[in-house]
Design brief:
By secondary structure, this protein is α/β, with parallel strands linked by helices. The protein is 37% helix and 28% strand. It has two domains: 130 residues, 3-Layer(aba) Sandwich (Rossmann fold); 164 residues, Dihydrodipicolinate Reductase, domain 2, CATH 3.30.360.
Length: 337
């Protein structure tokens, strides 16, 4: 592909999508359009993005019209997640490469088999269209930095025998409960496991998943090329305080912290005791890598469509186990945007 800036359109830019747009701009792309639900919401988002990074593109309430008129090279699907399947398929049909927010394909009103079928349909469409598909579960983007930090503090990188992640969220529109937490947070944790142990598989005979009102937990062994690794994941919703984002292997735990540097760029810091390592924000790395892939670099997406589908498979399997243990509870109305 030429050095002409890649044209990027963002579906749903009022939440996490605004940060996608910013990272595409910093990656040298031209953010040509955003799509939202109403004229008023689009105008508010346009003004916010103009202040954020100088956005000058157009706004649409009709995704199909945006895809037809703007012919984007890349579409960032950051709409509410029950719409991910439809928006990803539309973008692929329009000839765009697609980076889809997590959860990859999820709809609380659908059965688990149908959710998994939706994910398979999007991956198959991308393959048939010859387009790149990535999933925005960004924690694997930090693995090279984590490994460098591990080796700086501990020495040689060891065989992985234990992976731990503890992740808290604080809902913008009220608390998340029960399976809402699982839908929203589990993709981060599962993608991190897959990223640490590529080519591995979950041993379902060892798996336990528990869905409580404000905390979800999953434990299982993951069998990789170098042997068996025990995984322990904890995800919870909190009302007050700063949400914890903590992960590590073999007991070397780091806390993720975000901060804005002197140039106004959001960056990440990994903290272990009195030691710390600064690096680019994980979502920033994920978007930059996807742009490089589209431009023809020999790197691969941080979380490919195949990776996202594998994570979705585990997400479905583990939730099915939890439901078999305890009947599903009534879910609150979907408030994600």
């Amino acid at each position: 592909m030429s050095d002409t800036p890649l044209r990027v359109a963002v579906i749903g830019a009022s939440g996490i999508g605004q940060h996608h747009a910013r990272w595409y701009d910093l990656a040298g792309c031209e953010v040509v359009a955003i799509a939202g639900t109403t004229k008023d919401s689009c105008e508010r988002t346009r003004a916010r993005l103009a202040s954020y990074f100088g956005f000058r593109g157009r706004t649409y309430q009709d995704v199909e019209a945006m895809l037809r008129e703007e012919t984007p090279d890349i579409v960032a699907v950051t709409s509410p997640y029950p719409m991910h399947r439809a928006h990803a398929l539309a973008a692929l049909d329009a000839g765009a490469h697609v980076l889809c927010e997590k959860p990859f394909c999820w709809d609380k009103d659908k059965g688990l088999d149908e959710i998994l079928s939706d994910g398979r349909a999007v991956v198959a469409k991308a393959k048939d269209a010859g387009r790149l598909l990535g999933v925005s579960a960004q924690y694997p983007a930090g693995i090279p930095h984590y490994r460098a930090f591990y080796e700086q503090v501990r020495g040689a990188w060891d065989t992985l025998t234990r992976i731990t992640m503890e992740m808290e969220v604080k809902g913008r529109r009220g608390p998340k409960r029960y399976e809402e937490i699982w839908a929203d947070v589990a993709p981060h944790a599962l993608s991190l496991v897959i990223g640490f142990l590529p080519g591995g598989r979950m041993d379902a005979t060892t798996a336990v998943c528990e869905i409580d009102e404000r905390e979800n937990r999953a434990r299982f062994d993951y069998v990789g090329r170098s042997g068996r690794c025990h995984v322990n994941l904890v995800m919870r919703d909190i009302d007050e305080g700063v949400p914890a984002r903590r992960f590590g292997v073999n007991g070397f735990m780091v806390d993720w912290e975000g901060y804005v540097d002197e140039d106004g760029i959001f960056r990440a810091r990994l903290v272990h005791g009195s030691e710390s390592l600064q690096c680019d924000d994980f979502l920033h790395i994920l978007v930059q890598t996807f742009v490089s892939c589209v431009r023809g670099s020999d790197v691969r997406p941080v979380v490919s469509g195949a990776d996202g589908l594998l994570g979705l498979k585990y997400q479905v399997e583990l939730l099915r186990m939890a439901r078999d243990r305890v009947p599903p509870r009534p879910q609150a109305p979907d408030v994600h945007g």
